[in-house]
Amino acid sequence: MSESTTSAPTELIAVASAVPPEAVEALLGAVRPWCAREVEPAAAGWDAAESLEPGLGARLAELGLFGVSAAEADGGAGVGLRGAAWLVEAIAAASGSLAAAYAVHEAVA
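Now predict its structure.
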């Protein structure tokens, strides 16, 4: 079996490598303490109830987490898909359920 020589399209590479680190760090700096304070203590209960707490979407919006992968000119944070993935990872450290819901929203936004 021969190795594939197909590479990622140039525009995908450019998008993935154009993440402004200061923007991602600012978002992570807001998300991590919030997750430790509000998400981690409640996560097991959400999983047991098979339901996330009402109002979580509004809290995520207050943190500026919706549409983060979109360009700033389009109302997003301009952190791209890689930056959004780092946010999903930070949320997942506190709650896999919330991270999955957030990732789906970010993917379709």
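The chain has a mean pLDDT of 84.
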